Amino acid sequence: MKKTILRSVALIAAGLLAVTGCSANAKSGGAADGDFPSKDVRLIVPWAAGGSGDLTARTIAPLLEKDLGVNVIVENKPGANGSVAYNWLAEQAPDGYNLAMMGVEVATLQFMDYDIKPENYAPIGQGSSGPGAIAVPVDSPFKTLDDLIEAAKAKPGEVTFSSPGIGSVWDSPAAGLQQLAGIKLTSVPFDGSAPSIAAAASGKVDFSIDAIGSQKIQVDGGHLRYLATLTEERDPNNPDVPTTKELGIDLQNASWVGIMAPKGTPEDTVKKLSDAMEKATADAGYQDVIKSSNLVPTFKNSAEMATFIQDEAKRYGPWIDYAKNNTK
Amino acid sequence: MIPVFASPVAEGIAAVMAPDTLLVIGIGILIGMLVGAFPGVTATMAVALASGFTLTMEPTQGLAMLLTIYVAAQFGDRIPAILINTPGTPASIATTFDGYPLARQGKAGLALTTSALGSAVGMICGIVILAVAAVPLSAFAMQFGPAEMFALVVFGLTMMVGVSSGRIFKGLAAGAFGLFLATVGRDPITGDQRFTMGILELNGGIPFIPVIIGFFGLAEVINQILTHRKGKGIKPISQMGQWMPDSKLLKRLAKPTAIGAATGSVIGLVPAVGGDIAGIIGWDNARKASKKNHEFGKGSLEGLTAGDTSSTATLGGSITTTMALGVPGDSVMAVMIGSMMIWGIQPGPGLFNSHPDLIASLVTILLIATVLTLILSLLRMKGVIKLLELPDHFLWVVILVFCMVGTYSINNSVFDVFMMLIFGMVGLFMLRFGFPPGPAVLGLILGPLAESNLRRALLTDGWGAIFTSPIAVVLLVIAVLAVTLPPLRQLVRRRKAANVGKNVPTLQP
Amino acid sequence: MTDQPPIEEIDQDAAIEAAHHHEEPLVRDLPVRLRELVAVVACLGLGTWILIAGKDIIVRGSAELGPVFWPNMLGAGLILFGAVIVLNNVLRGVRKADVPERITASGLAMFGVTMAVCIGYLLLWNVLQFWIITFVALALFTLVLGGRSWKAVLAFPAVTTAVLHFLFIVALRVPL
User: Fold this and answer.
1) Which domains, and CATH codes, for chain A?
2) Which of the two ends of chain B, N or C, has the fewest CB atoms closer than 10 A to its terminal CB?
3) What value of ipTM does the predicted structure carry?
4) A125-149: per-residue pLDDT in tens?
């Protein structure tokens, strides 16, 4: 009895092996410098599978494959706010075969006592962005941003807002808002954007500061109302909502997703990858996926990205310090 | 009630009944049962992987695939929980409490069948809720802010006494240990490190699934190895005994099933709380209501049924909150939201108005998946049990290696596998020195919710936030009663029994 | 089905057992009770460590219940429960069901070698090809845990490795 089972299992397994081959083990082959790429490229996602960053990676990978002519294998390496993957990437050979997705954390984790320095990476490009907005519950007494600021001035620390976690891409601009408007707010950090926005939608906190696209669900459902967007110009999807800049507070912020390589990757390799990414982000299919995730397809090349990341670090450093020193 | 022949409903059902959608459901069931049965490979992971290739499908088919995997995994994960004491996914933690003792008593067949039936009943209850009351119930779920979550979690923590199997103080100590493990990592409010001991990976907290695999599966195998004697005699586990529950047993199981279904349905509605917690709470609720509560944890079919019914009944509620609020009902739904947005289905308050046929489609998919999975589970049970006919050393090796590879596959991390081994040793220590693992796991699941929600509530309105919320107050009162009532009732019952003397009250309802 | 006693009979037994539940005799042998001290030491030790290590946590702001409140509560709780276990288990005794099965010498040896193989396996995880180390580890495990025939030591590891390879690498695309 047992024998027959063992035998049949062995047969099936052998058959499957024969059919599928050992394709997953294609680790062989060394590359000379000039002809990049000559083997599979690994694209590490520092977040768990399923989020919008992961989707971006999985959408862009086949497009990069088409352009580079080699496989681009997407792997998730989540952990410790992405720092596990970022640290891993910093230790890889700078040959362009190991890449990672990145978000603003590359610039900001250093302010949260993580050993992540933006100088250790060579950015390839940016793929999408998610500009932010301030939204209040529909029945909130705050009709304009000024109402909110007045209320916060009258009772410092009593106006609360929800954020996806301290030091995060949306808690930090709230620190900027407090500094620019000269007010004191209370941050209630949640574990991610969805619960944080839901808390504002059910009126548990006074307002939400998050990506326009993430708040859209609750705005469309009649639970939240935008007060202002954190954009340079009015959001084309919400032309009636003023920007903070129009209201006298020059505050802009957007979450973003990009790709990077370890520091020291040869310039022509970076250029090749950056060009491939530019083509991929212009692809209609890619643009559709990003737009339906309520994000904006954006492209910045390697050089633009390097300055951009430095600017982000300069902006976020003081914000995070402010937020940490003003926690209630 | 929705008129059945109204066009959106009929359209929704018709969309699912197309042959290619049914084919997709079939594939989903196979994937789901397979991944469910392997410890470490969770429904969340399978759905996340599948979402990679369902993106190009039609929305109905894509949804069918993902939901079916989710449903089928909830059946598959019971198998290792019962046979080898290792939860296939966290949703079957409560299954190990009674399922494994039953298997050791030679009732593995009966346990598997009962568990599958209970899971199916729970699933259908959840689906009914989704079908009839999705929109009004989501308004209830919306009320769950930090204060209410904290109160719910306190209620959940009272279950520690119940899952201690009589060793109350060691149970509470284990519970405190579990809660402590949950504090390791970054503080949820200030973001500073706590107990990370300079280990980078611990910044993200102690990984949950490796710990439960270590506590339950590895610890049990190691204990068997340690106490192994040559020619220790027969293995009771391979005697199958009864397969199908008879009518008397079914009657007896009606009550725990109802309790489990009710518990799971309510808990499923609460955002971010899933089948793992619901299973434990349902198990404990049934224990309190049962007249044979001393059997719970030692191989009670009632306990098995209640836990499994409760954990699957959450699924309907999870889908309801996800679809109607845009807030993920549990980790699987968190992954699914991303895919749905790409298909142009924007989960959130406006969804059911803009897509009236969607509820009908969802319900049909879930029903078909449940029924087919149940049939398949009952059919292939005898094959699964063959695993137990393997000699000890093969079984041990299989469990060891599958636990290691499965754990690695969660995050592609060797660190997680080391954690699994370390917590296997901790679990072994607890097993040898009489600390029950149930409360520790409960603490680990509920810990982050308890502390962070308490502190969030205090940030918004101080202590008033908790005491001005009716839901929170009611839940806290229930929690107090849950701790104080059972000992009182037991006291009364003992008095009565003593008065009546040898004439012990009959327990037939 | 017939080898099971009728349900009523079980219920009756259960009822009697339940009624006399509190009279379950405790094991009062000194070694068994002294062994409980290990559990006590574990509780006290961990509780104390939590309280000491908790001092390193940075506390900012003035919110009620800062980052140290919760761990301190748990640390104190563990110390308290440790003390209660002294009163309850060490001084009074242990239920018979809670006395574990004895560890055997051969079991201990098997455990030691198994753990060594596990750790070796993990250390080589990212160094060598998955199927090579898995095959070797499986063969060693089987050998250590009591498999002796060539089927046990060669065929079984080969089949299991193939199944693992197909399931995780091919189907689930885990980068092993």
Assistant:
1) 39-129+255-319 (3.40.190.150), 130-254 (3.40.190.10)
2) N
3) 0.84
4) 999 999 999 999 999 999 999 999 9
